[in-house]
Amino acid sequence: AFLFAGGSKNSIGQPFLSKKVRIVLSVMIAALGTVLGCIRQVPTGNTGVVVTFGHVEDYTLDSGIHFVAPWRSVVNMDNRTQIYTSELSCFSSDIQEVTVTYSVNYRISKDNAQTIYRTMGAGYLQTVMDPKIQEAVKGVTAKYNAEKLVEQRGTLSAQIEEVLTESLTPYNIE
């Protein structure tokens, strides 16, 4: 810092760096900082959604390192298979209260990550998936009496999966 301020001098009282050299060095450092600030990394298993001043662009970035204009930001959307587990109280067809613990494997469509971010944001699990999952579990569970729920868990699971696939596909969630 003292070199740029001209505080250090050689043996004859002259600054080590002339004013022109200090200006050139300052410009080079600023340019290097700008260039380095334009480099973005998208981690493996993610899709980079490009946002320009709040507007979601119509293209995405694959995993890796990318050069992006400084006025653009990149939001990483995880497109790996994830698991969501929860408990839900619901009623069987014979009005018995049942607690269902369920796990759902899901992933977002890599090709439509920008659409998901544009329409639902990064919190798509809470805004879309959780209500759809609860609706599917409660709806299918209500078709069975309490005894059949235990006996036909495989059938129940397949029906819930079918309902979920149908209701989440329009949102680009698999």
Radius of gyration from the alpha-carbon trace, in angstroms: 28 Å
Structural class: alpha+beta
Strand content: 25-35%
| Biggest sheet details | 3 strands, antiparallel
**Counting H and I runs of at least 4 residues, what is the number of helices?**
6
Strand order of the largest sheet: 3-2-5
* Shape label: rod-shaped
**What is the helix fraction of residues, given as a range?**
40-55%
C-alpha termini separation = 55 Å
**Average pLDDT over all residues:** 85
Order of helices and strands: HHEEEEEEEHHHH
How many β-strand runs?
7
Q: Which residue ranges are poorly predicted, with pLDDT under 50 across at least 5 consecutive positions?
A: none
Structural descriptors:
6 helices, two-stranded antiparallel ribbon, single chain, 174 residues, alpha+beta
Folded structure, characterized:
- The model has no long low-confidence stretch (mean pLDDT 85).
- Helices cover 40% and strands 28% of the residues.
- The chain has helices spanning 2-5, 19-37, 113-119, 124-141, 146-151, 153-168, and strands at 39-42, 46-52, 55-61, 64-67, 72-78, 82-91, 97-106.
- The protein is of the alpha+beta class and 174 residues long.
- The chain is built from six helices and seven strands.
- The chain has a three-stranded antiparallel β-sheet with strand order 3-2-5, with helices on one face. A two-stranded antiparallel ribbon has the order 1-4.
